[in-house]
Each structure stands twice: as C-alpha cells, then as structure tokens.
Design a protein that fits this description.
Layout lengths: L20 E5 L4 E4 L4 E3 L4 E2 L5 E2 L10
Length: 63
C-alpha cells in the first residue's frame, strides 16, 4: 500500500506502528496507517487481515 520512500513497515512487522497516518479521526478515536493498520486511541489495533491486537499501554514505573 505504501507509495512513498522510505516505505513504511509492513502490517505484521513489530514496528508497524511507525507507519504514516493516512486518515485520522480523533473524534471517533481511530486512525488508518499507510500499511493498512487501524489504530485506536486506547492502543488497540486491527491489522489488514482482520487480526486484532489488544490495547497495550505501558505499565507505570514504580520508584
């Protein structure tokens, strides 16, 4: 899907969240990335093949 250089990481790569945003809908809480991944404000994701990724917020650090 990616038409620019350097190309965005594919949807199944571990760094797929680094892809460019091509459509943003903050009022609805989601964005579409160049690689076809839909990311949600709660950090959940839907990959182009329909696979879902549960929200994965980092845990708070303790002192």
């Amino acid at each position: 899907m990616c038409q620019h250089l350097p190309a965005c990481p594919p949807a199944h790569d571990t760094d797929h969240d680094a892809a460019r945003v091509v459509a943003s809908h903050p009022e609805q809480g989601w964005s579409l990335l160049c690689n076809g991944v839909v990311v949600f404000e709660d950090t959940g994701e839907i990959l182009p093949d329909g696979t879902t990724v549960a929200p994965h917020r980092p845990l708070a650090r303790t002192a």
